[in-house]
């Protein structure tokens, strides 16, 4: 056994105990398949008993930890695996593909999602050791190896769900520790750059948020670039490097995801949802919806309603 294999084996054995307890707790707290809110507003628990089809999803900034099973996220043809040994970080809102690839009724996919509080993240960055300076913009999504310290903090956060009297005092502290562990871990500089004023990632994060906040409005690339003190060409280049798409494509994806939500959650017909998100042509909406989600609006919504809740895990 070489040194690297020995180190990997030791790390895997060290992580098995917290992972086992984490899986047991998530299984106990989720009695059916789906995404389950908790008493901690930013924390969600996931359980799925079968593999799920690959589907387009809209990821908001989050940390995903898997206790059992495996899932992949796909962005621009690149595949990011997350499983009991690897966690996923989404540092900015991103349309991507997601698929649960390992789950059975006996050993369901069990995971948690911690939505990232940007203000809390900024405060934590000030308390972490300086990271290497980034000389290029990175994708707003990555997976990295989960350390024992990170898993321990995540487990303590989930344990708090059985101690409601301690939630208000301790949950924010443990969440900051989780941010600290991610910032200090593999590729943590990517998350740091997002909240470092003046960095390329910070500017693109602001562009993403502006599009998210105003996705129904006509898009002026010139005005957006000017607001970020960037040239139009730099905005296009850096935005695509981070999100894999142009600002205009990104806005279109946001509109289609919102139309999907309106049909799924509010019961709107396809034509009404299309008008609500700014489409004047129903046929154009149907074509672009099918291109993104793999099926026309009506049939895709029927299929989604047959699945347990959302699979954004």
UniProtKB/TrEMBL annotation:
<dbReference type="InterPro" id="IPR018060">
    <property type="entry name" value="HTH_AraC"/>
</dbReference>
<dbReference type="InterPro" id="IPR009594">
    <property type="entry name" value="Tscrpt_reg_HTH_AraC_N"/>
</dbReference>
<dbReference type="InterPro" id="IPR009057">
    <property type="entry name" value="Homeodomain-like_sf"/>
</dbReference>
<keyword id="KW-0805">Transcription regulation</keyword>
<dbReference type="Pfam" id="PF12833">
    <property type="entry name" value="HTH_18"/>
</dbReference>
<feature type="domain" description="HTH araC/xylS-type">
    <location>
        <begin position="205"/>
        <end position="303"/>
    </location>
</feature>
<protein>
    <submittedName>
        <fullName>AraC family transcriptional regulator</fullName>
    </submittedName>
</protein>
<dbReference type="Pfam" id="PF06719">
    <property type="entry name" value="AraC_N"/>
</dbReference>
<keyword id="KW-0804">Transcription</keyword>
């Amino acid at each position: 056994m070489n040194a690297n294999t020995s180190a990997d084996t030791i790390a895997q054995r060290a992580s098995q105990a917290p992972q086992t307890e984490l899986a047991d707790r998530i299984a106990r707290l989720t009695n059916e398949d789906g995404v389950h809110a908790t008493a901690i507003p930013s924390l969600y628990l996931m359980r799925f008993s079968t593999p799920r089809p690959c589907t387009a999803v809209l990821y908001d900034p989050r940390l995903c930890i898997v206790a059992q099973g495996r899932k992949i996220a796909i962005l621009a043809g690149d595949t990011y695996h997350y499983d009991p040994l690897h966690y996923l970080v989404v540092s900015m809102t991103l349309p991507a593909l997601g698929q649960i690839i390992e789950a059975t009724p006996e050993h369901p996919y069990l995971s948690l999602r911690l939505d990232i509080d940007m203000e809390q993240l900024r405060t934590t960055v000030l308390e972490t050791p300086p990271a290497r300076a980034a000389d290029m913009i990175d994708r707003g999504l990555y997976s990295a190896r989960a350390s024992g310290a990170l898993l321990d903090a995540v487990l303590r956060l989930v344990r708090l769900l059985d101690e409601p009297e301690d939630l208000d005092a301790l949950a924010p502290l443990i969440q900051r520790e989780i941010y600290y562990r991610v910032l200090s871990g593999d590729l943590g500089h990517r998350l740091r750059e997002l909240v470092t004023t003046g960095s390329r990632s910070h500017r693109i994060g602001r562009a993403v948020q502006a599009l998210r906040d105003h996705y129904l409005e006509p898009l002026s690339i010139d005005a957006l670039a000017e607001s970020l003190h960037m040239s139009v060409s730099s905005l296009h280049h850096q935005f695509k490097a981070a999100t894999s798409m142009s600002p205009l494509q990104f806005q279109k994806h946001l509109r289609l995801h919102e139309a999907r939500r309106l049909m799924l959650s509010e019961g709107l017909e396809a034509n009404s949802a299309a008008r609500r998100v700014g489409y004047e042509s129903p046929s154009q909406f149907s074509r672009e919806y099918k291109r993104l989600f793999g099926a026309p609006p009506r049939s895709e919504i029927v299929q989604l309603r047959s699945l347990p809740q959302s699979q954004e895990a």
